[in-house]
C-alpha cells in the first residue's frame, strides 16, 4: 500500500531529511577527528587505540559497573569450564 503525502507533508519530510543528512555528515566529521586524536594519543602513550576508545565510550555511557559485572560473569563461566588461562 502506498501513501500519498500532502504538499505540506512533503515539505516537512524534505526538510527533516536534509537536516538529518547534515547532522550525520557532521557526526562523521567529528568521529573522524576523534579517531585521529585517539590514534595519536594511543601511539604516544603506547596503548591500543581500541582500548582508549573503549575507555571514552565507557566514560560517556557511565557504565563501568555494568562492564565489571559482565566481565565477572565471563570470568565465572571460563573458570567453570576450565578455560581461565
Task: Give your account of this protein's structure.
This protein is 81% helix and 0% strand. The chain is an all-alpha fold and 85 residues long. It folds into two domains: 1-47; 49-85, no CATH class. It is elongated and about 65 Å long.
Question: What count of helical segments does DSSP give?
Answer: 3
Instruction: List the uncertain runs.
Output: none
Q: Sheet with the most strands?
A: none
Could you give the order of the helices and strands? HHH
Number of domains: 2
- Report the C-alpha radius of gyration, rounded: 22 Å
Number of strands: 0
DSSP helix fraction: over 70%
List the helices and strands and how they pair.
Blueprint: H1 7-45, H2 49-61, H3 64-80
At a glance:
With 85 residues, the chain is mainly α. Helices cover 81% and strands 0% of the residues.
Q: Which terms would index this structure?
A:
mainly alpha, 2 domains
